[in-house]
Design brief:
8 helices, seven-stranded antiparallel beta sheet, globular, L-fuculose-1-phosphate Aldolase
Length: 229
């Protein structure tokens, strides 16, 4: 059942290790079949060194396990909340990558101060508010998804495919699991460059026209970056 989607999620999780975004079991990737409304995600706490395709877990959007002998990632309710709220996304990634997590722990948005950032993220990469005592003591992982959704009120998640959860770490998304991982790699690099930039110049300036140009040439109605399909 869902062999192709399970292969995609399995490989995308291994890609987190390849790109240096996770150590031990500090991350997870999922993907969704929108037609069937089913999600595939990494199992909880299983080492990447021994993980297999057969370990991937298939669930519905309410979290009911349909296939798999292992428990799904503890972050599953967060992924499911995002799939429900952001209808265009097909994959979600969560890591504790160093620089992105540092910005999250500081509680700061990552400002859009360079063309690399603008190529992928139209706006600042937002940081959520702090999660409350009631949310922590309640359905914590689902509430984590809810604070992300709350932070994106008035924002387009398709144009800014990532977020920092305050005191926690980054989540990214994309059209599939591979794009979600790609955006996680970019977010980490952008976080690193922003950190270095502010160490050199505490008040960097960015031309908003340059932000728009770089975002639109990849994602706008008249995008021209790359080759035609």
């Amino acid at each position: 059942m869902f062999a192709e989607l399970k292969q995609e999620v399995f490989q995308a999780n291994l890609d987190l290790v390849k790109h240096g975004l996770v150590i031990f079991t500090w991350g997870n990737v999922s993907a969704i079949d929108r037609v069937k409304g089913l999600v595939v995600i990494k199992p909880s706490g299983v080492s990447y060194e021994i993980m297999t395709i057969d370990d991937m877990v298939v669930l519905d959007l309410e979290g009911n396990i349909l296939e798999g002998r292992l428990k799904p990632s503890s972050d599953t309710p967060t992924h499911l909340a995002l799939y429900k709220a952001f209808p265009n996304i097909g994959g979600v990634t969560h890591t504790h990558s160093t620089y992105a997590t540092a910005w999250a722990q500081a509680g700061y948005d990552i400002p859009n101060i360079g063309t690399t950032h603008a190529d992928y993220f139209k706006d600042n990469i937002p940081c959520t508010r702090s999660i409350t005592k009631a949310e922590i003591e309640g359905d914590y992982e689902r509430e984590t998804g809810n604070v992300i959704i709350e932070r994106f009120a008035g924002m387009n998640p398709d144009y800014t495919p990532g977020v920092l959860v305050d005191n926690h770490g980054p989540f990214t998304w994309g059209k599939d699991a591979y794009e979600a991982v790609h955006n996680a790699v970019v977010l980490e690099q952008v976080a690193k460059m922003a950190y270095i930039t502010y160490g050199i110049n505490p008040n960097p300036a960015m031309n908003p026209l340059l932000i728009k140009k770089h975002f639109d040439r990849k994602h706008g109605s008249n995008a021209y970056y790359g080759q035609k399909s």
